[in-house]
DNA sequence: CGGTGTGAAATAATTCACAGCT
DNA sequence: AGCTGTGAATTATTTCACACCG
């Protein structure tokens, strides 16, 4: 009956301070805000594209523009991880890219397990490399006897009951749950038992986990409902007043 | 060359005030925080489950528990939409459920278009009803000649070039983009031209849209990288100090 | 009582604006 | 001259705590 922190759209409170002791501790990057972490991943991707194009320096303004954030935020985000831009010039693409990769823990390949090979799970299994930089899916699980034993993308589907065994063996660090709702908590428990401490949950349930486990939720229905809210609000605003969004008149295309 | 607001994990600034006029205007719910909207959708789902079980009242404590939030937050969230709980008792499941549905604009069925019938798109197309309450996918688009013309789940796949025509005809209000990255902006532009003002983007790009269009992003790679960061942090904390998360010693199961 | 609704306090995230480096 | 790094101000969100009501 632990309370579930769960981090979906919203962030977890923050990141714990390293230690209360005033003396010890590393000089390591401290307390990177959760919101910042999410954006670092975006910066990283764009830096990758710039690198491919052969660009070797960017200003915060330029990088911010392609990432869709404002430059002050970008600079502050980078400052949390102790960035090393060059004043008057900008950031060196290569080194910054490397630094962010390291900050995000992408230097060691993370092994991913996927539980639930239904509609969505199948797509996730075949996603191949997850947009380039590698999160190899190394284990697949389901309960359906028709699925257990087949191979998808070269990976054998094991029975859910083997999660603890197989995950430990393949050193899985991240678990993805794409089961139907009723099966999700069970899958989660098995992953936790296997020592997996980071979980990406696609099932529409709130998972109960011990506090050392980090859960992020991707909930398609919720995303659509949020958009639906905006559709409704727009209609409402359109109907009565004139100015709707941000005090500006709605423009017809 | 508009700056892109884009709302992924993080929220958009807020919701605009309805009107500056002190007098007129409806008694309508004003300025619901974005973070709250996301949670309303979760409350709604859980209320649905409670209703199915035949429960007809819940306290904020109980509902909060199953939704994985704390009860103060839940009460405040509901207060933004002018909730009508009964002091000393709790909330009536049925009426509250209905009220939230209406707030989220779920009373009018929203018609959804999906662009990009690849790996992920295929799964989304076949998702069927999106977790129950209806966001019927009524239009599918791709550029691949092998896909255009086939039916998935009873819906014909049209060519991307027909987006404006078909979307207007079928009164699409929400667009989902599941194309490869390079094609995403083009798909987006076509949807916008078709009058679609809410977009759910699965492609790993930052879409440029006019400001009246609401974009939400679901980025699998980013989600994994966020988790990866936590894996890395955990390792780091484990290696040196003892206390890692929230100042508590890491407990071995 | 028991539980909601909500001001006020605390915390987190964003933006401003400018000193300081190259 | 240009652009980073960052304190300080602002804004958003969460939590507290308690008056008030059924």
From TrEMBL, chains A, B:
Keyword Mitochondrion listed:
no
> Which InterPro entries would you find in this protein's record?
CoA-bd, NAD(P)-bd_dom_sf, Rex_actinobacterial-type, Rex_DNA-bd_C_dom, Tscrpt_rep_Rex, WH-like_DNA-bd_sf, WH_DNA-bd_sf
Show where the CoA-binding domain sits: 106-206
Provide the residue positions that the database annotates as binding NAD(+).
116-121
* Pfam families, sorted: CoA_binding, Put_DNA-bind_N
Query: DNA-binding region(s): which residue ranges?
Result: 42-81
Chief localisation class: cytoplasm
Query: Which keywords does UniProt give here?
Result: Cytoplasm, DNA-binding, NAD, Repressor, Transcription, Transcription regulation
Tell me the segments the record calls region Disordered. 1-28
**Segments of skewed composition (Low complexity):** 7-28
Kindly list the places in or outside the cell where this protein is found, as annotated in its UniProt entry: Cytoplasm
Please describe the quaternary structure of this protein. Homodimer.
Task: Tell me its family.
Answer: Belongs to the transcriptional regulatory Rex family.
Function, please?
A: Modulates transcription in response to changes in cellular NADH/NAD(+) redox state.
Record-given protein name: Redox-sensing transcriptional repressor Rex
Organism of provenance: Pseudonocardia charpentierae
């Amino acid at each position: 009956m632990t309370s579930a922190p769960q981090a979906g759209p919203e962030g977890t409170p923050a990141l714990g301070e390293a230690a209360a002791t005033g003396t010890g501790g590393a000089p390591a990057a401290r307390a990177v805000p959760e919101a910042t972490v999410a954006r670092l991943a975006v910066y990283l991707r764009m830096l990758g594209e710039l690198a491919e194009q052969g660009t070797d320096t960017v200003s915060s303004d330029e990088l911010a523009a392609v990432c869709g954030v404002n430059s002050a935020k970008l600079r502050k985000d980078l400052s949390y991880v102790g960035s090393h831009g060059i004043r008057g010039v900008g950031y060196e693409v290569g080194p910054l890219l490397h630094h962010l990769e390291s900050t995000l823990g992408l230097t060691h390949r993370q092994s991913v397990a996927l539980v639930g090979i239904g509609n969505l799970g199948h797509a996730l299994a075949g996603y191949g490399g997850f947009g380039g930089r590698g999160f190899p899916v190394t284990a697949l699980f389901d309960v359906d006897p028709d699925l257990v034993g087949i191979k998808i993308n070269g990976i054998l589907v094991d029975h859910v009951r083997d999660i603890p065994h197989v995950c430990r063996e393949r050193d899985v660090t991240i678990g993805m749950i794409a089961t139907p709702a009723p099966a999700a908590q069970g899958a989660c428990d098995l992953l936790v038992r296997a020592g997996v401490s980071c979980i990406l949950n696609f099932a529409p349930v709130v998972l109960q986990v011990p506090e050392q486990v980090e859960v992020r939720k991707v909930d398609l229905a919720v995303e659509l409902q949020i958009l639906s809210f905006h559709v409704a609000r727009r209609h409402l605003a359109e109907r009565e007043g004139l100015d709707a969004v941000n005090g500006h008149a709605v423009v017809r295309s």
